[in-house]
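Objective 1b. Sequence-to-structure analysis of Regulatory protein VirG.
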Amino acid sequence: MEHIDHILIVDDDREIRELVSAYLKKNGLRVTAVADGRQMRTFLEANTVDLIILDLMMPGDDGLVLSRELRVGKHKATPIVMLTARSDEMDRIIGLEMGADDYIAKPFSARELLARIKAVLRRARMLPANLQVSEAGQLLRFGQWKLDTTARHLIDADGTAIALSGAEYRLLRVFVDHPQRVLNRDQLLNLTQGREAELFDRSIDLLVSRVRQRLGDDAREPTYIKTVRSEGYVFSVPVEIMEPR
């Protein structure tokens, strides 16, 4: 039987829930819509979904709180698309760092939202292009670090786990899947967030800075993520796939 993707909408605006639900159902998706975090938790206790559409601005627990909560629970691998009425860049960055896979600003067209949903689902199910890593207990080793692709955290030389946000993990994963290859901002945005770069969008630059901090990289003389002037960034060390543990 063909799998039909199940989308969970979490938004306190009833009109948006109804309009988006109707459009997604018309385009062949299963949809459940709830009004707040409490209803979301109740539903997810007994159900699984393929993707969550999460409103940023809600009374009570907002989208950032719920996204952070989802990323440490049993639904940590479920893709999230954040809805935001704000256009401020830092709000978008914070949403991505809290674990959202993409965002879309209100007002939006249902057609664009559907396209974003399909892109995020496609990316979530796509094997890495270069290394083709199996996710079953694999470690990727580079320099003094290891990246646990199952737990999605870094492991330092002493064996200590270093937590990563969802956005940090996705960006680092793109780099280690494409070592010693220059990637520009457009490519990094497309590979990590499934969208084209927007004018003055510095989200990738800010995330690169955060990942460098995680790796203890000096931005002036980095060891791992080097800046290639006028071109982008390159992960400059070789990556080794370790044997399953």
